[in-house]
Each structure stands twice: as C-alpha cells, then as structure tokens.
Amino acid sequence: MGIPALGQSSPQSILPPGFGEPAPAPSPRATPRAAAPVSAVIRTPPSPLAPQLPDSNGAPPPEPLASAAPTPMPTGTPTPGVIANPVRYDMPSYARRWIGRVGPIDLAAGGLPATAFGTAPGRYVEALMRGLNLPIASRWLSIALRRALVSHVDTPPGINGADFAAERAWLLLRMGESVAGRAVVQSVDNQDYTPKLYEIAMQSALANGDPAELCPLAEGGYALGFERGWVLARAMCAGLAGLPGKAQPLIAAAGKNRVATGIDLLLAQKIAGSGARGRQAVTIEWDGVDRLTAWRYGLAMASATEIPTPLLDGASRNVMAWRAQSPLLAAHVRAPAAEIAAARGVFSSAALVDLYGAVAEEGDDSLPEAAIARDLQTAYSGGDIATRLAAIKSLWDAPKSASARYARLVLTAGAAARVPVRAQGADADRLVASMLAAGHDVTAQKWRGAVATSSDAWAMLALADPEARRYAYSAVSNYAGTGDATLKRKMFFAGLAGLGRISPGDIEQGAQALDVRIGQENAWTRALARAATANQPGTVVLLAAVGMQTPAWSGVSPEALYHIIAALRAVGLEGEARMIAAEAIARL
C-alpha cells in the first residue's frame, strides 16, 4: 500500500451509506484470542504492527509486516469483541465516569447540550462519522464539528459509549485534531475500553507523538490478541519506566519472532532506551523507507528523529495539522503546518499569532518564518496606518494558493480589527473577510457604513450581522461581487434565506430569478430537516459536514448552503450559521 492520497481523483457522491446507496458489506471480523502469560516469547503470530498514516477520506489500512503465517486484517473501525482477562484498576465509585455520557467539554465550558444527538440511532450516527470524506469546505463548519465531537454528550441508543468515543476520536484525528482526539479517548475510564477504543487510543498516541499514553493500556491492549503495536508497547513502556532488564528481552524477542523489523523495530528500541537507565544509543536510517506509517511518524516524533522531507510531503494534510500542534517541534518548523491547519479550522487566529511570536523569540532572522513574524509585528504595531496596511497587504499577497491566502486572513484578523474605519488605502473587502475569519463580527460591523452596498464587504457584513437586520430581494440583485459574481449572488441569496433575513415572498422570487432550487428534496435534505425538527444539533452538524464534502467552496451548491444554514439556525447554532454564510463570500 502506498502513501495515502491527498484527495479524491474523481467526483463521488456526498451521501454516506443509507442515503440512497447500499452500505458496503461488512469486513470479516477476526475472533479475539485469549491472552498469553506475560513473557518475552511470542508464541502466536501477531497481527499487523500499525496502520498506515490515514488519508483524509477513511480509516487507515493496516500495513502487514513479515510474519510466519497470514494474520487477520483489522477494519478501520474495529468491531467490539471480548477482552480476555482485562486489566482492572480499583477506583472509587465517585471517581468513575459514566459510559452513557462521554466527552471532555460540557455545556458550561462551551460544548453542545448533552442531548445533542437526541434519539438518533447510534449505528446511524457512527455511519455518518465513518463515511465522512474529508476535508470539508468550510473552516467554520469544521470548528462546529470539532465542538460537537468533543462535547460531553449522551451516547446514542444502540451502541457502547466507549465505541462511540472511538468513532468521535477517529474522526477528529482524520480532521487533524490530534489534541482534541486524545481528549475524547481519555474521557473514558481504562476499565471501560473496548477493542475499538484500544485501537483508536493507539492512533491517538501516535498522532500526538506520545507513546507514554499507551502505558496504562499496554497490558489490556496486549490481551486483545498479540497485535504487534501492543507487543512493542509493552517493551517501550518497560523502558520508559526505567526497567531495561524487562524491556531489552521483550525487544529482543520481538525481533527474533519478526513482530517488527527494520526501522519499525529500531524506533521502538530507541523509545525503550530513552527511559532512565536505558544506556543505549540507536541510530535511525531512513534509507529504503518509501512510506510514512502512523507507527513511524509517532515514534519518530517522540524520539526527536527527523523525518525526511519527501516522506512528509507524501503525507496527508491532517498529518501536517498534527505537526502544527506538536510541542516537540521548534516554532519555525510548526509555523507552515499551522497555517494549513488554520485554514481548516484546527488553529485559531490567536494561536497562530502566538506561534509566530515564538518564532520571533527564536532569534534566527534568516528564517523565512522570521520574516513573516516581523511583518506580522509591523501589521500590529507599525508607526502609522500606511505602514501597518502595507504589512498586512504583504502578508495577504505572498501565498500562491487560495487556501494559503485564506490562512493569512486568519493570521491577520487581529491586526485588521485595529485598522480605523475609512483608513486611506484600506482594502475593505479583505479587511472585513479577515476579521470575520476569526469571528470578530461586532468589530467588523463598524465598517458597515463605509463600504459600497454592492461590494463583497457589504454582503459579508449583512450575513454576519448579529442584529439580524432584514433585507428586500433588491439587496441581492444589487450585489456584484468580485470573481464569479453569479455564483456569489446565489450564495448571498442562499445565506440570507437560510438565516431568515428575507421574506418568504422574496425567497420565492429569488429562487426563481437565480435558479436556486431550495425547495427540492433528497435523502440528505430530509435527514437534515428531521434532525433540525428533533432539535439534535450534533446530528445537524454531522449532516451539514456531509453536505460539504469537498476541499473547495466552489464545490458547495447554493441549495446545500441554504439547507445547512437553515438547519444550524433552527437548532440554536445561529452564530456558526452566520460565519459559514459569510465565509462563502470570502472564499469564492
């Protein structure tokens, strides 16, 4: 299996299994084997070590290593099984967490209500998560999806709470949200882990470059049936605990029994030797390594082993987002990946500014990232408005791709908010887009009286307006956006209509005049309407993401935008709805 693809090579249906298409046949399931006595000798051929780095469109295929006999290939979302002799810990009842409600962020901390998924069948919700093709077009919808996935919510009926946490964490990891994914994994008590959550816990530890996360789980994971990752996790954890007398025989036995070979074994040996009294140096050579697996990525990060650029270039963008969040890397190394992550909603504007502040503190002025940090400092604190605007414009104009240019709007949001209204030479369209990219909707509204009513800036301000002013259809017909003006006018209409900012009569007039068929129904629109009627914000956000399974806004139809905005507004997520509608204008 090769390096994961970065995207689809041909258009595919945005509907997951169950929306007019038969679900794929289930993969064969391996029967868990009983646990063997703890020993350095591996008596049964182990299953694959670790899956390949996931692409953004599905679960990772496992990478088989040499073994004495064929072994089962686990599916991307493993099915629950029976753990032989599970590890149990004494925990007082008051400290145990209820498996019926799982997640790190409750309503008071900014999460969704506990009933976010309502009575939606658990298998249906899991299918939506598992079938979601990433990335999705909207940064703001990605942020809303992360919020839904990390919320402290009730487990939908028909599924196990730990399995539900595993599905949520796996989707977060595919989105690039390594830290959030880890938080969801760790919101379940170890004694409640299922085989599915054990597998995703391994993925979370590797994505975060932190194999020590595996140590409380290593014996339980090993008991699942000698999967290679857990075999080596026992050795690594023994080494990290300062027990080289235990770690070295386990590593030696793993090599002898071909649990792992080459760089995979050497990386595990390097981790095992990094603990107290390890006293061994392991040299890692990447010659002959043609792909980057999750195992290699995670252990290389943990052991401060530099990964060759060609291997990183072949990895998908969610891996770049993992790197952006890693405290193990220098700020200037993280910065380019962080801009990619910011465009996708993984990094906030404030976090990105802080990261470039850390780049400036590194003191190496020869780095290209240091030049960006200097321009950003000038954008905030230049001697006069003209100097600040020139620095902002320089940051905007430097990137070549549309995604990178949007990332710079996110980066400069705070500086844009400091520009006086009607400043001479100000690019109002991009200043407003920059402010709204970071959610500065109230500050942006100060520009309302300073921009032409036919401009992009005015359209974005109308959509993002927290005061919910109403408009006649003439506001739509008079709008003449830059670029693809026809598509932008349709999206502006769809946004206003979904937000309820124009009357039913004007909605009908606009739908006919612009040929935006918002009245047409299909399986997806009906599912979205049912979830909105049932007041299920979590389900609505998932279905909204289904409707935006495309890397670019040009792939989102005005009809889809209308239904998404209307559904989000119906379940109390009007702030997210306003930002998504404005983002459509900014990014087309």
Detailed description of the structure:
- With 588 residues, the chain is mainly alpha-helical.
- 50% of the residues lie in helices and 1% in strands.
- It has 28 helices and two strands.
- The protein has helices at 122-131, 139-150, 161-175, 178-185, 195-207, 218-222, 228-240, 244-256, 262-272, 294-302, 309-313, 317-324, 331-343, 349-362, 368-381, 385-397, 402-411, 413-417, 428-437, 441-444, 456-464, 473-477, 485-498, 504-514, 523-533, 537-546, 558-570, 574-587; strands spanning 101-102, 153-154.
- α17 crosses α19 and α26 runs antiparallel to α27.
- The longest helix is centred in the N-terminal third of the chain and has 15 residues, at 161-175.
- It starts with 100 loop residues before the first strand and ends with a helix.
List its traits.
mainly alpha, two-stranded antiparallel ribbon, 2 strands, 50% helix
Structure, briefly:
With 588 residues, this protein is mainly alpha-helical.
Give the overall shape: globular
Largest sheet report: 2 strands, antiparallel
The SSE order reads EHHEHHHHHHHHHHHHHHHHHHHHHHHHHH
pLDDT < 50 runs, ≥5 residues: 1-51, 54-86
Would you tell me the structural class of the helices and strands? Answer: mainly alpha
Q: Could you estimate the helical fraction of the residues in percent?
A: 40-55%
Rounded to the nearest angstrom, the radius of gyration is 25 Å
Strand order, sheet with most strands: 1-2
